[in-house]
Specification:
Length: 174
């Protein structure tokens, strides 16, 4: 018997796009349980629904049928977590904004959560340092290599301190 309180639990989860007769079944039905602290890697051929599942878990897509539940921990600091989602996603195409500096990209999720600017800047700078990007804080994504842009996306996701980190085809960390 598994953990009675899983971190993520999918039951009969499906997702289809379009309408009959041209409907495409992208996912499921899927049953999945992820325990707290567990590291899960989804492996499968292109088009089997891995990215669709991640987008549903991130709240970016709704399932067609079934349910996906994420159990969250009580926030330790309500000022920092009042609008927080329990997940952060790193997209395979980086998902960073070309018109924002590297620092502003990393701070983006914190800005959405209305974290005070001084706190958000400090946390963004901490993650830029940890990812080896401190010297590029004021640069723009177009001036960065692909690997550096991916590290910006990773720093942005980790800066919001998510309970679940969803990574769609991530590269190896530096």
């Amino acid at each position: 018997m598994g953990d009675p309180h899983p971190k993520l639990h999918a039951t009969q989860l499906t997702r289809a796009f379009g309408r009959a007769p041209h409907q495409v079944h992208a996912l499921g039905p899927l049953e999945l349980t992820v325990a707290p602290g567990e590291f899960v890697c989804l492996v499968g051929p292109s088009g089997c629904g891995k990215s669709t599942l991640l987008r549903i878990a991130a709240g970016l897509l709704r399932p067609s049928t079934g349910a996906l539940e994420i159990r969250t921990s009580p926030p330790s600091d309500l000022r920092l977590r009042r609008a927080a989602r329990p997940t952060a996603m790193i997209f395979q195409d980086y998902g960073i904004y070309d018109w924002k500096s590297v620092r502003a990209n990393v701070r983006f999720g914190l800005d959405i959560q209305r974290v005070p600017r001084r706190t958000a800047n400090a946390r963004a700078d901490e993650w830029l340092t940890r990812m080896g990007l401190a010297d590029f804080a004021h640069a723009y994504p177009a001036t960065l290599s692909g690997g550096m842009r991916q590290r910006v996306a990773i720093a942005r996701a980790l800066a919001v301190e998510p309970e679940l980190l969803l990574m769609d085809e991530p590269p190896p960390l530096p």
